[in-house]
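Bench notes, bay 3.
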Amino acid sequence: MKINMDKWAGDIIEDEKVKNLPILFFPCLPTINKGVIEVINNAEAHYENMKNVIAEFPAMIGAMTGMDLTSEAETFGCGVSFSDTEAPHITGEIVFDRASAESLQVPSVNDGRGPVFVKAAGLAAQNITDRPTFGGMLGPYSLAGVLMGIERALKATIKDGQTVHIVLEKCTCYLIAYAKAFKEAGANGILIAEPTAGLLPPKHCDEFSSKYVKEIVDAVQDEGFFVVLHNCGNTKKLVDSMVSTGAKGYHFGNAVQMVDVISQIPPKYLVFGNIDPARVLNEGTEELIKETTKDLLEKMKPYKHFVLSSGCDLPMEVPIANLKSFFVALEEFNNGE
């Protein structure tokens, strides 16, 4: 369904009540008796869980595809290990030097498992008509880091930047096509996960991440398509670089204090974050979850452009009861309790 996303964001900023959009998909799979392998390979099953997440947590202000951050690298040729109880993970890199960077082929957006996520987003956009649908994908430097191996990619940014740029240009070419596929399918936006850029100093973040993210943003973002840039690293000194991409939304992990980052971002942009998905939402008690969430909400009172979220993608093992406590905490806060 077409939505004016500029108005959607503006309404959130103007509303007196704080909204909630955690990166939530995999924890709800057990409630529909499905495993990870099925939903990352079957668009209808994937959409079924997107619909299920909204049914379980109707306060979610958007529907989101699952964040399987191996799909893009697998399409380029990386090996992937699969399990029904956790998100897939990459088993080995494929770019080792300048020669392998130059020989790397840009795959078609129709290859691999990307079309599963695109079709699922399209089904959601057609059938979940009371809120926007977001696709998810890796950012360019994070994808390059998977293809090269993170340690090799980080060293190369210092010693052999040209090789990294060769890989980044190819990654960005594919990711622009992937983002356009989500848009053409009817999705209302994408979340670009660029966590590896959080390991870079600001100058390198500009050169090796934000420059390429901006190319993606410029290719797809408009009043009907909203880009959120996620970085769960230590981003306090990277905010200016992130904002230079032109994305209209920014999502932060729990490695930073939200007040340190949101204070640097113009109030016209939405800022999402950042309850710890592991120690709080997965392992925490109901009391800890409520206390931590309300403490963050109190600190965010001066910032109308804040949207409550998890600090990162929620792992499958997060209990549904804990997620309910997270949503109840926001409801109680909005009601003055």
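Next record in the batch:
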Amino acid sequence: MTNKVLISGANKGIGFETARQLGQQGWSILLGARSEERGLAAVEELKAGGVNAEWIKVDLNDVSTIHAAAKYIKANHADLNVLINNAGIPGDMHKSALDFTSDELREVFDVNFFGNFEMIKAFTPILAANNGRILNLSIPTVANDFFAPFAYMTSKASLNSMIAAFGAYYTKNNISVEIFGVMPGGVTTDLNGNTTGPFMKTLPQGGKIIVDLLTDGKHHQGKVLNEYGVAMDYEANYLLKAQKTK
């Protein structure tokens, strides 16, 4: 059986690089992108490298495209066995918490949380028929002096909680889907203004982290993994620190 993956936001950046690396391993790629022009251009680039790829319109701001994609894939790609929720937006990464408006926060949550919720919900029945997996791209959600983008971080914290909740739900209800998150760390992409530095990874490095954790053969139900494959349990870490300070 050939592995088949749908990757949202895969026309550029780490989504495209993940598609390229999986495609080179023989995977069939369903490349999710909002823009037909950019999506088809990305597909042609993958095909030029020998990858089997097809563009699927997916816009996390437009629920109708998610439902249409699920309907099309069920009819034409019923063997889909992996979904990678890669698409996301950061919001203003330099704005302080008190400077955000509710509308600005909603814009980020609409994509990073609600859009991914709709993807998970729409594709669970297809994936369940194939013992499928859902990998969600995430970030660390404990603020520090160097990294604390308010909208981005809070939306991803909600996503991480949703991963844990869906993992528990799938297990309790014997649904044959595994869901987990991956935090590849800082990767130089358009999302962060192509930031470079000693702690930033290249696109091939970031893509390799995702591909390696997706294909490691281990069970990660409901977990959010760092780049080394270690599950991040912030609640447990917080409680441990609290006990040490008593």
